[in-house]
TrEMBL record:
<dbReference type="GO" id="GO:0006631">
    <property type="term" value="P:fatty acid metabolic process"/>
</dbReference>
<keyword id="KW-0966">Cell projection</keyword>
<feature type="domain" description="Thioesterase">
    <location>
        <begin position="89"/>
        <end position="144"/>
    </location>
</feature>
<dbReference type="InterPro" id="IPR052365">
    <property type="entry name" value="THEM4/THEM5_acyl-CoA_thioest"/>
</dbReference>
<keyword id="KW-0276">Fatty acid metabolism</keyword>
<comment type="similarity">
    <text>Belongs to the THEM4/THEM5 thioesterase family.</text>
</comment>
<keyword id="KW-0963">Cytoplasm</keyword>
<keyword id="KW-0809">Transit peptide</keyword>
<dbReference type="GO" id="GO:0016790">
    <property type="term" value="F:thiolester hydrolase activity"/>
</dbReference>
<protein>
    <recommendedName>
        <fullName>Acyl-coenzyme A thioesterase THEM4</fullName>
        <ecNumber>3.1.2.2</ecNumber>
    </recommendedName>
</protein>
<dbReference type="GO" id="GO:0016020">
    <property type="term" value="C:membrane"/>
</dbReference>
<dbReference type="Pfam" id="PF03061">
    <property type="entry name" value="4HBT"/>
</dbReference>
<dbReference type="InterPro" id="IPR006683">
    <property type="entry name" value="Thioestr_dom"/>
</dbReference>
<keyword id="KW-0053">Apoptosis</keyword>
<dbReference type="InterPro" id="IPR029069">
    <property type="entry name" value="HotDog_dom_sf"/>
</dbReference>
<keyword id="KW-0472">Membrane</keyword>
<keyword id="KW-0378">Hydrolase</keyword>
Amino acid sequence: MIASLRAFLNRIAGGRPEEHDITALGADLDRWSTTLAEAAVEETEQVYGRRPDLLGRGQATWPAVRFTHLDDNSLEGVVTFDRYFLGRHGVAHGGAIAFLFDEIAGRLAHLGGRPMARTGYLRIDFRAIAPIEVELRISGRYLREEGRKRILRLELAHGDTLCAEAEVLMVTLKPGQR
Ligand SMILES: CCCCCCCC/C=C\CCCCCCCC(=O)SCCNC(=O)CCNC(=O)[C@H](O)C(C)(C)COP(=O)(O)OP(=O)(O)OC[C@H]1O[C@@H](n2cnc3c(N)ncnc32)[C@H](O)[C@@H]1OP(=O)(O)O
């Protein structure tokens, strides 16, 4: 279903359907919204975004990263920004890159069974355009750990071109923090 939703969003983003199809689609979506409202659950029960075995953790609106290397202090992977993430002129939206980086930082922060942490800052430099619909490389590693602070470095590259880089602070939560 998530794969279908992902494909659907890309068709929506990249399509210009006829008026009657737009109307019919709206009606179909409304019908599904009504059905899904009956299946509403609390956050702890939801499945969406909680399937690490699926691409994008089972989130249709997350760039689908495929990890090629994971150890306790670093990770590497490949990601393709689909049409859905288009900003303008064939380039991924900067917010999509921030979304990708925050998620990757979360993944990196919790490697090696480290305790729960949240993003304190996410400082991004956009160095070159990140094209959509081509495979990009993502990498991340620990710069240092100081008490509750984990300082990480992330990079997004297209071939030899560095598209974006970030320094991220993840802070270990104190007891009672959520
Ligand atoms: C989410 C976890 C999931 C775990 C799952 C594990 C499996 C992994 C699988 C898949 C991963 C996918 C996970 C997704 C990841 C997404 C992550 C997010 O998007 S999190 C949402 C955005 N972030 C917030 O909403 C934070 C809001 N801010 C806060 O809650 C607090 O400010 C917090 C916790 C960050 C720090 O607050 P304090 O009260 O606990 O601690 P204080 O004392 O202020 O700071 C501690 C140290 O950090 C420095 N610090 C804190 N914030 C700083 C900042 N912005 N700039 C510089 N330094 C900062 C301070 O100066 C202090 O440093 P000194 O110990 O004195 O040296």
